[in-house]
Amino acid sequence: MPSTITNFETYFLGNSSKSIAAYQKAIATVQSLLIDFFDNQKQAYSGKTPEQLTAIFEAIDLDPIEGQKWERIAAEIKKILNNSVVVSHPTCIAHLHCPPLIPALAAEMVISATNQSMDSWDQSPAATILEQKLINWLCDLFGYQIQADGVFTSGGTQSNFMGLLLARDYYCQTQLNWSVQQQGLPQQARNFRILCSQISHFTVRQTAALLGLGEKAIVPLETDENYCLSAAVVEDKLRELKAQNLLPIAIVATAGTTDFGSIDPIASLANLAKKYGIWLHVDGAYGGALILSDRHRNKLAGIELADSIAVDFHKLFYQPISCGAFLLKDRNLFRLIELRADYLNPETNELEGIPDLVTKSVQTTRRFDALKLFLSLQSLGRKTFAEMIDSTIELAEKTAQLIAEEKALELANFPTINAVVFRYRPQYSVNKSDKINSQIRMLLIKRGQAVIAQTQICDRTYLKFTLLNPNTTISHIANLLAEIKSLGQTLENN
Length: 494
Ligand SMILES: Cc1ncc(COP(=O)(O)O)c(C=O)c1O
What we know:
CATH architecture of the largest domain: 3-Layer(aba) Sandwich
Order of helices and strands: HHHHHEHHEHEHEHEEEHHEEHEEH
Number of domains: 3
Shape: globular
CATH topology of the largest domain: Aspartate Aminotransferase, domain 2
Bound molecules: pyridoxal-5'-phosphate
Strand content: 5-15%
Structural class: alpha/beta
CATH class of the largest domain: Alpha Beta
Radius of gyration: 25 Å
């Protein structure tokens, strides 16, 4: 009697020739589409508007009753590829959004195909050991001592969350003899305050809200002319808060602000944090990568004094999204958020020396993203990473120089890392400056010539280049600046 049961063999990668053939077909299709796409890329983006994209995907059948042939699926993939921003294009320079390294792309295939889950050792035996080794290497790289530890995260948002979560719980435990994990927030929590610069990442504010402290817990402080916090300003504020019977629990230093790449004075802030008995978290999501560069590492001086550090690999370490890490100076403090589940990480595992990384994470099921960083380091070597970082900083410096020399443009910052903020300076219609700068950006995107960002300084609109791509050259930038100037002049005359 013929079986009515479908054979699922060809849907999963396994040890049969049919399964392997199906896998090869899928991978070969996608690979040839990708090669074709990258080989023929001429523009940073197709220029399609949200309405046009909605129309393109209007007729897509999301759940066909029968599976489709790859040839047909390929047509849909092409539509997606053709309307994606080309992150490796030399003028796709809007955000902290990097072109991913080739070894990391290969790693992604291994990560997905083996599908290890980092929560418990029995779901990721080798991966658990390798992630821990990379964490130990990172702690050492940032100058932490042997008692430090950390965990891979989905990125800066999660790492900042973990830093402030531990800061809050540590304060409650040590100053108020209160376990937030057991008892929830203490009454005094309404007076908790977290100091940071007014240009720290919005996730600091978001975290305060998520931690039940409210956005009001954030005390945003003015920055100096280089967009950095001043330790003197922070200390004045600490005194003021104390005089008002408010309870400062943490300082957040940003090592690489999103718009300007500016780096707060970490060592002085660490001294202050120590003096006032509060936590210092360094948001090094962007600038943490400077630790690899002999030329620029000194900009992070004092980072080893921080209680916790956020560092992202999907920014200046050129990893595909997502990949980040949270590092903690004293590993014992992970106990503040430790939870046990019988099925996953029972205490008996610990007694038997079985490492379950879930105990250090706010995620349960978690990808083996550490493999991407591992294969990239293996394939490129540390020296090349440092050279890429150095070369993009040099490019940013030359870009700033070009802008400073051009009368039609106004430079907002001398780059500490590789972000350059500036604006077109209208000759006659000064009051239309914001509108003209916004229009310049949108025109570049719509024409597919460049994807650049826009930001605000003192409520005025500025343009931003985030020069992460080591293949962007100064002549790409010079051409783009000439185009920006010409667009500005045309808009002004219209
Ligand atoms: C300084 C800084 N911190 C944190 C984040 C958030 O990181 P993620 O997007 O990886 O969660 C960003 C994002 O750009 C950032 O620039």
